[in-house]
Design a protein that fits this description.
With 81 residues, the protein is mainly α. Helix content is 22%, strand content 0%. The chain contains 4 helices and no strands. The termini are far apart. The mean pLDDT is 86.
Length: 81
């Protein structure tokens, strides 16, 4: 079947039965010893210039292991700004 014939047509995927019956393994299902979770907070303002970030409250929150800002990552990873 060519691509043109598939456009707009339903395609039966092989993985669907596993997904809709709860038999599939999702990334969120994986639990490893010592595993941490990460949250990313982005500015709600497009193209805003962030002048400062106060991370004190986040660092004091129970269970928080680390808090990083773009300034902390500068020179360690590629551009995050």
């Amino acid at each position: 079947m060519g691509i043109a014939a598939m456009l707009g047509s339903p395609i039966k995927r092989r993985e669907d039965p596993r997904l809709i019956t709860g038999q599939a393994t999702y990334v969120d299902d994986i639990k490893l010893y010592g595993m941490l979770h990460m949250a990313v907070l982005r500015s709600p303002y497009g193209h805003a210039r962030i002048k400062s970030i106060n991370t004190d409250a986040a660092r004091k929150y129970p269970g928080v292991v680390a808090v990083y800002t773009a300034a902390d990552l500068k020179g360690v990873v590629g551009s995050v700004a």
